[in-house]
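forwarding from the other thread:

> can someone predict this with nicotinamide-adenine-dinucleotide?

sure thing
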Amino acid sequence: MRFQGQVAIATGAASGMGLLFSQCFTAEGGSVVMCDVNEAVLNEKVAEINAKEGGRALGVLCDVRDYAQVCSARDTAVREFGRIDVMANFAGGYALRMLKVDTKGKDFCDLPIEVFDWGIDVNLKGPFYFGHAVLKQMREQKSGLIVNIGSITGAEGDSKGLDYPTSKAALMHGLTKSLAQAGAPYGVRCVCVSPGPVLTRASMANMKTMLGRAADPREIIDLILFIASDQGQFINGTNIMIDGGRDAMKRVQE
Ligand SMILES: NC(=O)c1ccc[n+]([C@@H]2O[C@H](COP(=O)([O-])OP(=O)(O)OC[C@H]3O[C@@H](n4cnc5c(N)ncnc54)[C@H](O)[C@@H]3O)[C@@H](O)[C@H]2O)c1
């Protein structure tokens, strides 16, 4: 019960790693405000968590691209649970996949610009907005942790979905370091965790790693929980790759 009495906000919490984080955090005694745009699934998952032993979950319909909704999610966490110990920014994705764009025979510059707005806004603006919003509360508490989720693609680039590596690289470096600097006077940390392929979707098994496999989502969440736990308190202002050696493998091949 490492997180007894602690409170987290998780975005993208209706599925994948955001959901798994919420399940694991509450299983260890913490309470969680789960934010997502998929209200039906969110409500179902919140009810499942609340039917189990452990901390409480609360679902909040929140589009991370909307600053008013972001502030409202923060205010709900403080009103209902009194504080925010962990802000975990999972909402995100590869826009061309999320928006089901047909890319056949098209280059980056042939694809409609609005598609890329989605990626920049959800992947980058969302964590930027939440960082701004929760820092106010964490400054008052004089403690807190903000976790951003980068990606191996932020280090590698991508020739079609340029919004994805662009926004993820910004999280991995500029935003994470800057929030750590902004939070340091108040004991607030910021860390980025950047996975290689993760089996939240079966297709991720096709992406090569040095270990010859993709990650089980639990491997990524275990790292995040360690960073949030008493044992992880010295980790700050940095990007941690958790990619089965894919980053190192590419360098060796070149
Ligand atoms: N799965 C991988 O292989 C992998 C690898 C590297 C990084 N990541 C990153 O990890 C994070 C989680 O990935 P996943 O595979 O678990 O995701 P997922 O696709 O299973 O879940 C994403 C969730 O975000 C929600 N969402 C979408 N737009 C939103 C918005 N505007 N506001 C609030 N919520 C919104 C969706 O409804 C969904 O529930 C993402 O940021 C992703 O880029 C994933």
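Residues 113-141 form the longest helix (29 residues). thats all i got for now
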